[in-house]
Every structure is written in C-alpha cells, then in structure tokens.
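Incident review: delayed structure delivery

Summary: a single-chain prediction request sat in the queue longer than the usual turnaround. Root cause was a stuck worker, restarted by the on-call engineer. No data loss occurred. The affected request and its eventual output are reproduced below so the record is complete for anyone auditing the incident later.

Affected input:
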Amino acid sequence: MTKRTPTRRLMRTSGLVLSATLLSQCQLGKPFDFDEVSVTELQTAMAENTITAVAITQHYLDRIEALNATLNAVLEVNPEALSLAAQLDAERAAGTIRSPLHGIPVVLKDNIDTADLMATSAGSLALLDAPTPARDAFLVTQLRDAGAVILAKTNLSEWANFRSTSASSGWSARGGQTRNPYALDRTACGSSTGSAVAVAANLSVLAVGTETDGSIVCPASHTSIVGLKPTIGLISRSGIIPIAHSQDTAGPMARTVEDVAIMLNAMVAADPSDDITTNMRTRTPLDYTTFLRNDALQGKRIGVQRQLFGNDAALDSLMEAQLDLLRSAGVELVDIEINPRSSFSSAETTVLLYEFKNDINNYLYERGGDLQSLEDLIRFNEEHAAEEMANFGQELFLQAQQTQGLGEAEYLTALGLSKAYSQSSINSLMQELSLDAILAPSNTVGWEVDPQGDNTENYVGSSSFAAVSGFPNITVPAGYIDGFPIGISFMGRAFSEPTLLGISYAYEQANKARKPPILD
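Output delivered after worker restart:
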C-alpha cells in the first residue's frame, strides 16, 4: 500500500499560483487584522470592501502552512478553496449575499463526507484511498449553500476514538498526534481535536466537530473555545462516518458564542435522508442569534453538579469564582447531584458496540470500495499493524465485531436503561427544581500526551449525561490553571439551545476569559 501523507497534500494545495485577478483581490486595501476575528467583523469588512473572501481564505491557508507542522491539526486543505472564495466574491459584487457565512472559511472533521478533491477517512489509512463519497454530508451542503468556504479537513482521534480502549486522543495514523496550542506536550482531548485546535490557533474562523460522548465539549474546553453538542435530531447525521446513531451528532465550534449561533443557523434543517430530523419540519425555524442578550442570566435558576467538585483544589477555586460571577449577574444557583448508576457506563458501552458494527457496516457498504465491513477494517489494521497499531490496538473493533445485531435483548435492554435513566434524571431534576440549565466544569488541566494511551485519572466526565440522553451541552471558556484552558458547561433539556446559547453568551460577555495561544 502506498501511504498518501498529509504533508504531500498540504504542499500540493498550498502551492497554488494565484491568477492576476485573485492576486489583486488579496491585495485590496491595507493589511487586515485577523487576530481573533469574528464572523460579523469579517462580514463588515467585506461589506465595506476592505477585504475579500479570497484574501480571507488565503490568509488562513498561509497560517495553516506556517503552523500546522507544529500542531498537526489539519490533514489537508481544499485545493478548490480559493476558486470557491472567488465565486463568492463575484456573487457579492453582483449583489447576492447568501447568509452571514458568505465567504467565511470553515474546516471539517475528517469523518464528515465531502464529494470533492479531499479525502474522508476518519483519520485511518484504511479509507484514505476509498471511493470519494457520492455526495456531501447533508450539513456540508447546508454550509455550502450558506456561502461558507470549505477550507480543509482536520485531524481527529482515529475512528473518532472508537478503536481501542487505550488510544491517545488526537492521534490518527493519517495525521499523527494533534498538539494543544496552549501546551504542546499536553492533550487537546478528543476526538474533534483538530477542529478545536484549528479554531483555537486561528487556522480557521469556524469548525465542525462531532460528538458521541464528549468529543466536541472536551477538545473545545481544552483549547479555550466554544463548542456546542446539540440535541440529537437538530443536525443531520447523513454522510458522517458513524459510531452510534443514538448518540452521534455534529456541532459547531468557534471562538465565540455568537459565531457558534451563526453557524448553527446554517446547520439546522430537516434532512429527508435522516428520519431523526423530521421534528424540524414541524418546528418554527429559529434565528439563534436573537437569543444572545447581555441580560440573559438575569433571573435564571441553574443547577451546579456538586459531585464534580472536591477532587481538584485549583479547579474548585476557578469554578467558585465563576459561580460568584453568575450570582452577581442575577443567577440563582442550586446545588444538585446527578450520580449515575453503577450499570450506566456499562450500558452505554454496550449500546455503542452494537450500534457501531451496524452503522459502520451500513456506511461502508454505501460508500463502496474494497472495505465493506467492520471485519474488513479489522483485517486491514492487522495487515498494516506497523502503521496503525504500533502503540495501541483495536479492542473496541474486536468487541463490536462480536455483537449479533440490534434485535438482541442485550442491546435493547442497555439502550432502554441508558436512555431512560439519563433523560428522566435530567428532566425530573430540572422540572422539580425549576432549573433553566445545569452547570458543570468541562475539564481540568489536560494530561501529558502519551502515544500508548490517555492518562484520564483526573478527567472530569461531565459530558456523559447530555451525550447519552441526546440533550444539548455547550462549553464556554472559563479561565486558565497554570496557563491551561478550562471550560464551563451548560446542559439543558431537549431542544433548549436558545436558552443555553443565551446563558452562555451573557456569561461569556461578563467573563471574557478567552486568550489566544502564543504561537507566532
């Protein structure tokens, strides 16, 4: 097998020669300050004719070229990015502006299908030469229609961190180890690691990640950005390499809550190919930016998950300061505990194993190519063990392969337990205490990167209830411990994104915690 490396792809695409027209667009006006720039600021600049989509796209391509060798956040850039940006500039000049995303670069996690010149591989060498997907993922079509420039594919924990029980977060055979821009020797968590790092290090304006349990919230919090894991059914799952259909979802990642809301507007839609989104056909379309108010904390009742305090003095101190800030903004805080049953985690694992075999087999069959099943992937890894399994194995693949189908009693029992317990726990608690949201620390200081697997001894697992229940969860930068980013999470009931975005925005404006990493 000939391995196509991400370095070759980056060199090929970043070496594009600009036409005279594109070059003149890039040189329009005086130098633009891209540092921590927002979607709204970029739209204002384009409206004022001080910058173009081509110039914006070129800036981020150049920044990827300069920094990606250190960060390993990007697997490949889109060779059509500049021409797409030029087309959008022409539309703007003709008076057409598709949406607030018109001309804005977005990077995609490499488990999201694109029917273009980029690969979709889940970070694995097994899919690097697979047939190009027949169509874009539904959410990618939504973003393109909104005028976003699909800039690149990002690195991730291979197979979205569902191959081994001891993997290193942010590592893939295709892209190597993604590095945290705030501490290169420490994890950026997983599995949407590359998407989070790309946004945090200003390699892109926006990113799409995916989550099954913590894979948006964890890397976003570890890199001082905002990440929203939406309600299951809000965003289509079509065209995303799956782990488990009962928990998988894509979500927006950005440096601000406002940018997350803008991106969410474009991603939410009913997809005829994904039955879980049929609820969107009967829901009134929302503009999520209308819920972003400075006074959105006033009068709110928020539950504080006290079972996640008491294990880390530095984290407790930082969180208590955030609670004081919330109180001063008019929030009534209520101490609560959501303690999972001893069988909860086991039930979730059982569900993921059964659904992974079913869902990945369906995906591979529809994608086509030589690898048509999980069994084929297992064999591929064994045949390419030196590249794929030098540091850890494929225990989860092997366990999933032993499952016998979604009609089995073991699966149905586990699904019922995990869903019913998580959903009823959240709904009952919020109703009984009249809560608008539930608060938790998103993370503590990340562990040192170890190629043989993560040391999660001090991991703060606040994402699981939202993940298993399918309810929304958003993380916002809260501060730093010894320079390492810490996030705070707000979870709510199904389709409570408007409330959570309002709470998060008002908190963000009051705290203004985010500081960019020092890389230049």
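Verification: Confidence is low (pLDDT under 50) at residues 1-9, 11-28.
Action items: add queue-age alerting; document worker restart procedure.
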